[in-house]
Amino acid sequence: MMKKQLIMEKALELFATQGFDATTVQQITDYCGISKGAFYLSFKSKDELILAIIDQFMMEYTSDIDHIVRSPENNLLYDFYYTTFHSFHKHSNFAKILMKEQSHSFNKDFFLKMRHYDTLIDKSLLLLIERLYGKGIDPIKYDLIFCIKGFMHTYSQLFLFYNSPLDLKHLSQSLVEKTNLLAKQMTVPFISHELFQILKQPLNEEITKDQLIEIIEEKIADIEEPIEKESLILLKQQLLNPTLSPAIVKGLLENIRNHSECKWVSYLLRNYFEV
Fold first, then answer.
1. Which residues fall within 8 angstroms of residue 213, CB to CB, at 6 or more apart?
2. CATH fold of the domain at 46-203
3. For residue 252, which of 27, 44, 84, 216 sits 20 to 30 Å off, Cα-Cα?
4. Are 51 and 113 in contact (CB under 8 A)?
5. 1.50.40.10, 2.40.50.140, 1.10.10.60, 1.10.260.40: which CATH number matches 1-43?
6. What is the Cα–Cα distance from 88 to 215, expressed in whole angstroms?
7. What is the reported pTM?
8. Residues 186-228: pLDDT tens digits?
9. What is the dihedral of CA 176, 179, 183, 187, to 10 degrees?
């Protein structure tokens, strides 16, 4: 395991029992069995470490959701809800800390980061809704985005504040029914296209090709698995000189999608190549 990943995993264990504020860098280094110097080679501060942990969680979730939304499967809405709540359940300890700490004073970078991921999730939700319901839902599709996010937020609290076992399949089926009813019955939209654009306007920046190449080069240097490494090399070449068919690009992205270090770059490339 890379030292940076080790620090993140061990720190998360401490944060789960003590919270962000009460956990010191010294406690983290003692728990990891490393020196403070080794810590600061990976992270400039505890705040940077916390943001890196948030990034890891949100990158994995955003990438998984985007993959489902773009998949050819028929049960898109069910798969979307099931993946969402499975992720909340899997990372419930971290989610509890995150919700608690959001009520405290957190720096500007945290709020900008969360708004950034919120915008990416909205983009995936919009594609999901358009695939499910077509053009006929255009007047209410932005309201439906907010309704789905409301379901996600409200029902996720069942995993965060209650210890009783929950049937994820039944929950997902129930929310599919509720969402379909809203899509068919809503007649008074509130969120217009213009309002939606205004809400998302400050974070509309697209990643550049040069930035993508830089990210890919970092991953090529970091990972050892031959299939993932070779796929990244070919994807980098595709960015520089596009000669591969969309089907081959999609296959290369599938090769790297499930690697823990490649989820985010696969998401970025999927959107860049529009496959």
1. 236, 239, 240
2. Tetracycline Repressor; domain 2 (1.10.357)
3. 84
4. yes
5. 1.10.10.60
6. 27
7. 0.76
8. 999 998 887 887 776 554 456 788 888 988 998 898 888 899 9
9. 160
